[in-house]
# Entry
Amino acid sequence: MSVKSVGIVALFGASAFLAGCSTYSVGSAQVASRPAVSVTAPSDAGVAHPEIWPAYEYPVAVQSDDEARIASLLARMTLEEKIGQLVQADLCCVTPEDVRKYNLGSILVGGNSGPGGNDLAPAPEWLAAADDFYLASVDKSDGGVGIPLIWGTDAVHGHSNIIGATIFPHNIGLGAMRDVDLIQKIGAATAKEIRVTGQEWTFAPTVAVPQDFRWGRAYEGYSSDPDLVASYVGAMVRGLQGPPSNDDLLAGPYVIASTKHFLADGGTDDGVDQGDSSISEEELRDIHGKPYGPAIAEGVSTVMVSFSSWQGKKMTGNRSLVTGVLKDRMDFGGFVVSDWNAHGQVEGCSNESCPQALMAGIDMYMAPDTWKPIYEDLLARAKAGTIPMDRIDDAVARILRVKGRIGLFDAGKPSDRPYSGDYEELGSPEHRAIAREAVRKSLVLLKNQGVLPLEPGGRLLVAGDGADDLARQSGGWTLSWQGTGVNNSHFPGATSIWSGLEQAVQGAGGSAELSPDGTFETRPDAAVVVFGETPYAEFQGDREALALDPELTAPFETMRKLKAQGIPVVALMITGRPLYVNPALNDADAFVVAWLPGSEGGGIADVLMAKEDGTPRFDFTGKLPAAWPRTTQIADGALFDYGYGLSYASDASEWAELPELDTTELAGDSRLWFSAGAPAARWSLLVSGGEESDQIRITNVPAEILSGKATVTAENYLVQEGARRFAITSGLARTELRNFDALDIDRETNADVMLLVTLKVWDSPDSARLGAIGPDSEGFVDIDLPVTSDYVRYGIPLKCLRENGADVTNLTQPFVLETQGQTDYAIGEVRLGSDAETVLRCG
Ligand code: BGC
Ligand code: BGC
# Structure
């Protein structure tokens, strides 16, 4: 294929292109790509055959006293109490009083939740909340048995919801380091930090084996290679839970783990989050099933089931896999939890009702905001006898068995347990040292024309928009769900890449200058340019092409300029995945992949900066955990194979200039609909007086439109002319963004994502409505637009638009701002996200 056409292919459907090729190599595994030719006949599509799966033995000994206690509890529990154990509510939507009344078995804290509605609450408030909920759960004043609840959290790279905790590199970076012992230490340090704030359960490790890095959660997996992932899982589970013989976890520095997401979360077609995997049962077993063996061998306490489906059937409703394979064949003896309202996606189910999940083998429903209807639905069905009592008893017994194993019945309230309130353990020097070692070992060197290691005594310029940004180097699932809305002040004790380099240079008597755009006063001896992806998490990170979003490529130009002045350039890339970045690879003299290193940026300086005698302090040992693409599609082949990585011992080889593609037209960040003064690629900015016929597409400003009733001009916002200002003299006016393809934002809507609109208002309209329009539907919400002295980022929950009639699966104008009367306002940005400054009410 010619280089020129690649951008076009990426734009107009990768699947059509992929259809032409049958296999490509990922790691050591030869993996068939789409379309998979399945041997399974359509009639039994999505039905697994447990007998062809490996059998294991769950090593956790059943304690006779625990079993006696479980039997006695089951005998005394009311049906209501039993059903309560099966339900997990999110902190967003549950109170201790609810837990007392409904005997809920568990609570969780989702990425954007926190004690008292504050996901950035200080650590002591988490422990206080843990006590409140615990005490409510064991309250027996209503005559119940009072079973203590457990609290789950996404501590996926350290205790990553807590300010001040050690943030370890995300799993993809750990995959690059190939160090099983360090994995166990990371697990142990994470468990101890979790215990400080009183939680008992982490939704980790993610054991996905990502096969298509367009998937926005690929960085949560260690590698594309099932063997590498499998080699880590046991160590991580052991670090978190202690050995399988450990039957009193809460007495030591441990928590229970959850391997997720069962199964083939990393195997969906085209890397679509929560999508369908059409692979054969053999591939399902040999690639995605691999890590579950070592997890079970280590006695993992819980397994979380995937949102995704296999051969068209949602995992959450797949009895052959959840019960047949996982529980029966693999002998998994813990309990199975579903994912965030994932039951609502099972065929025939809704968020409020889904007995199918229980019957498939789910023991605990993660029903964040739907726990009450789920509870009532299960209770009514149990009373009517339409769900069997033995399935309920089995699920309750599994949950109680895990609670017994951790010693929960005798542990007392969270603040009385060991490690609780030991706040000095959060981000302790010992834990930060482990993280820093992991950062050092995860760096992958792709190019070095002799510029590295850097002489520490000279003048170093540190450029690039990612150099001094702890949120950026930490990625998604850090303090907030998508990793957005936080800044350096939220990371006390952490070290940014810039400050790590600065400390190393200054310690050696040199000088360092931070300059994001690469301009300088005194000519440096060398420059490090830090660039790459910005934080994202579930599905907001999905892309059509493996390329850096066009709006993030400005540092390429910085590298070019520095190089033109004869300054040696080191490119340092922050990224959750291998991406096409040939311009940077060509222009920089050295290229280092840092992945998402987390809070200990000092580990980067450790490897980049030489000792005073010019020899390296630490060598590069990291190897690619997945193949690096030659173009924006991995199907075009690997530029660097799985396992590639240079060291200081490697020869500085000649660099053959790589072909550069035009990626400016790539769709880029699908969350960003309008920014830097322009709509996203293939989107249009339109203004009308409310009629299709008078609709004007705004390309150039200033523009006078609607028969002189409106003028559109440019305003500065973030960048020069980064906003569009609309001055309207009277009547109805509509400003809207129209997308080339109809948009489906159903998943985002279910996940509490908002439409974020950044506005400055000089003159308020008489009235205003914000809405979304599809071919056959529309949904509007009335809003106030007060005069503001600066730009304000308003958020409207997508749910409001749906509630008011918008068909969120099919939107052509997903953003419409309609005003009545004279007004004057500017739009700086329109995007999806969760970091609103002011949340608008549904109306
Ligand atoms: C994610 C899980 C996570 C859960 C709780 C889900 O949307 O898929 O990985 O553990 O939310 O935050
Ligand atoms: C929560 C996440 C959760 C996601 C589900 C968000 O609102 O904060 O924890 O994983 O929804 O898609």
About this structure: Residues 466 and 530 are 5 Å apart (CA to CA).
